[in-house]
Amino acid sequence: MFTNEKAPLANILVKTHWEQGHLPQAKTKALYLPLIDMKLSDPDTMMTAMVRVQELTSETGQNFSVLTCDQQLYRVAVQVSWANPDRFKDMHLRLGGMHALMSFVGAIGSLMAESGLSSVLSEVFGGVAKMLSGKKFPQIVRALRMMAEEDQIASQSRTAKLWVEVLVKPVFLMMSYIRAEREGDWLLHLTTFRKMLPYYFAAGHVNYARYGLYYLRSMEKLPPHVQSHFLQGQHVTRNIRGIWNGLWSDLFIESTFMRYGHSAGGIIGITLKPEALKIWAVSRHICCKIESDMKEMEEEETNTTEVHFYHKEEAKARVIADVKDRAGLRQKLDTCLHPLDPNEHPVESIVNITSGKIAPPTVNVDSAVKIGEAILEDFEKT
Question: Which domain of life is it from (predicted)?
Fold first, then answer.
C-alpha cells in the first residue's frame, strides 16, 4: 500500500477490512442472453424481458428474481409490474445505483450553479460542465471528494450554509453511498439513499425523485427471504475476486456486456445495415461468453487469477495524482473568497466565491435540503 504524507490514506476502509480479516469475495459470474431488438421504452419490450427473467428463475430452481434497471427502464418495469401484480409478485425491481448516483451528482451541480464551484474545479479538471451534470462518472466523484476535504470549517453565513448543505454534506452522502456498495452493506445503502432524496426533489430531478422514493419504500418492504440475501451483501456484484470492491449491478453491466459491445468487435463503427445489426444482436451474447470463458481458461492455465486486496485508489499513481490535484484546488481556492468564512461574506446574502457577484435576496438555494424535504413529504402524502 502506497502512502504519502501530503495526502491522507487513499482508503482507510480497505486497510481496516484487511486488518479485521475480511476474506476476498468471489467474482460475479456473468451470463449473457440475446438482445431484444425492440424499442427500449416500449412496455411490450419490458414485458418480454420480465417474462424471460421469470422463466430463467424457474429453470434454475429459484423462487424469486431481482431485476435492476436505470431510471427510464425502471419506470416502465414498475408500470408493467403494477399492471400485472399477481404475475410478477415474486419479481423485485431495483433502481440502478450507478445511474442514481450520476443523477445525484447532477442535482448537486444544478444547485451549486453560479456559486463558483465550476470555476474552482475548472482550474484542475477538464470537462467540468459534463462532470457537474453527472455524465463523467467517476471523475466527478473524485473531484467533489477533494473539494470536501479542502473545506472543513463550518459557519453560519448564508454562503457558508450553501457550501456545507449543498456541497460538503452531499459529498459525504456520495461517499457513504459508494461505501455501502463496496462493502455490500444493504442497510447503509437504504439509509444513505433516503438522505439523498431531498436533493433530487430540490433540484427538479423529478423522475429520480418520484421513482427513487417508490424504490426506497419497496425495498423497505421486501419479504424476509429476499431481505436476508441482501443483508448478506448479495445485492452487489464484483468484476474481480477481492475485498471492498462491490459494484452496483448496473455498473457491472456497463463494465461487461456494454463494454464488449462498444469495444473492438462491438456495434460501434461496423455497419448501419439492419440485417447485419440483427445478426450482431442475436449472436453477441455467444461471443461475449466465449471471450469470457477463454479469459478464465488462460487464468487457470497460467495461475494468474486476479484477487484484489486493495482498491485501485490506493495505487501509487492515483495517490500522486491526488496530491497534485489537491494542490491545484488549494491554489485556486486561495484566490477566492473563503466559502466557509462568514467574515468574507456579505450579510444575509449569497456570494459567488470566484466572481464576488451577490445573488438577489429571493435566491434560497441555501435552504435546498429543507425545501426538498418539504416537497418529498407533500409528494408522499398525495
Answer: Eukaryota
In terms of Cα–Cα distance, which of 32, 25, 26 is closest to 292? 32
Counting beta carbons within 10 angstroms of the beta carbon of residue 228, is it exposed (0 to 12), middle (13 to 18) or buried (19 or more)?
exposed
The x, y and z cell numbers of residue 296, run together, are 478464465
pLDDT digits (tens, 9 = 90+) for 202-241: 999 999 999 999 999 999 999 999 999 999 999 999 988 8
At a CB cut-off of 8 Å and minimum separation 6, what does 169 contact? 369
pLDDT single digits (tens) 174-185 = 988 999 999 899
Distance CA 145, CA 121 (A): 11
Q: Which pairing describes strands 241-242 and 307-308: parallel, antiparallel, or unpaired?
A: parallel
Q: How far apart are CA 216 and CA 222, in angstroms?
A: 10
Rounded CA-CA distance 163/154 in Å is 9
Q: Terminal CA-to-CA distance of the chain, rounded, Å?
A: 52
- Locate 156 and state its grid cell: 453560519
Using DSSP, state whether 267 is helix, strand or coil: coil
The whole-number average pLDDT for the span 12-19 is 61
C-alpha distances (whole Å) from 205 to each of 73, 105, 111, 174 are 16, 11, 11, 17
247 close to 177: Cβ distance less than 8 angstroms: no
The set of residues, in sequence order, having a beta carbon less than 8 Å from that of 101 and lying 6+ positions away, is 134, 137, 141, 174, 177, 178, 248
Within 10 Å of residue 337's Cβ, how many Cβ atoms? 19
Gap between the Cα atoms of 11 and 15, Å rounded: 7
Cell output for 377:
413529504
Could you give the CA distance from residue 345 to residue 341 in angstroms, rounded to a whole number? 7
* Domain extents in the chain: 12-32+96-381
Asked if 177 and 101 count as a contact pair (C-beta separation under 8 A), the reply is: yes
Q: Give the DSSP H/E element, type plus range, for residue 190.
A: helix 186-203
